[in-house]
Here is the input.
Amino acid sequence: MDVAVVFGSESDMVLSEDIKEVFGIFGIEYEMYVISAHRAPKKLVELVSELEKKRTKVIISAAGLAAHLPGVISSLTSIPVIGIPVGKSLGGMDSLLSIAQMPKGVPVATVGIDNSYNAALMAVKIISVHNEGLRVKLDDYRENRENSYSIYPIC
Ligand code: RP5
Here is the structure.
């Protein structure tokens, strides 16, 4: 499987639509899960072990408040982990710092608060390192984005 997305709570799943959109554009295979690092730590360990067996290439994890989920996942596996801080309280600064400020040796690639779109795109970029077809699609995506702008006045 290409990507597993692990949310800390069903309430975080408001961020899932952008992920589905990006993975739809690039034809990425994915699965989504809800498991809290705080409320179900043993299940989380089991899940990560299952994801390793499925040869998952990238894990995206979204969590709010004291957002330990992406960091704990990273501590359990060598699969790259992209963390999405969910803006639940304090403007999301609590989760941003929880996810970004990992101790040396346990990295989590952190995107901006609620920026699940970028998390999905980063996952596509990571997978494209060994997938030429995906690389070409990413190049087209960038070119289309550029072409949506004009140097001529819009009014
Ligand atoms: C975190 O606590 C979750 O990721 C969620 O963002 C937050 C609140 O969870 P709920 O109380 O809405 O389930 O662990």
Notes: The CA atoms of residues 8 and 78 lie 20 Å apart. The two ends are 47 Å apart (CA to CA). The chain has a mean pLDDT of 97. The chain has six helices and five strands.
